[in-house]
Automatic annotation (TrEMBL):
It comes from the Archaea. This is Antibiotic biosynthesis monooxygenase (ABM) superfamily enzyme. Keywords: Monooxygenase, Oxidoreductase. Coiled coil: none annotated. Pfam families: Monooxy_af470-like.
């Protein structure tokens, strides 16, 4: 399993952002190997973390080439003050579990 962490400092969102964001989320969900996502907001500021769960790098590469996703990557300065992407391979995961909120999200 792979985790793709999208760390961002949001700027100003407009209707165009929301439309593009919805299209990107739909493309992510439709790409083979998508397992779900989790979102966290920093309690002390605006920073946001979105973690996407994927089965393979192949699906991630396919999603990365999506036309809406490509457009958003080119125009990030319109909506974000800063961003960072981290791709992590999960070697092991263990613990007591979280019931319906267990990772990866269903």
């Amino acid at each position: 399993m792979y985790l793709v962490t999208f760390r961002l400092d949001p700027g100003e969102y407009n209707a165009e952002f929301h439309d593009l964001n919805d299209a990107i989320q739909a493309a992510a969900e439709d790409t083979e190997g998508y397992l779900g996502k989790r979102t966290w907001h920093a309690p002390e500021g605006e920073e946001l973390l979105v973690v996407y769960y994927r089965e393979s790098l192949d699906g991630l590469e396919t999603f990365g080439a999506d036309a809406d996703h490509e457009e958003a990557k080119q125009r990030w300065t319109v909506w974000y003050d800063a961003y960072e992407i981290t791709v992590t391979e999960v070697i092991e995961s263990y613990g007591s579990g979280f019931g319906d909120d267990a990772d990866p999200p269903a």
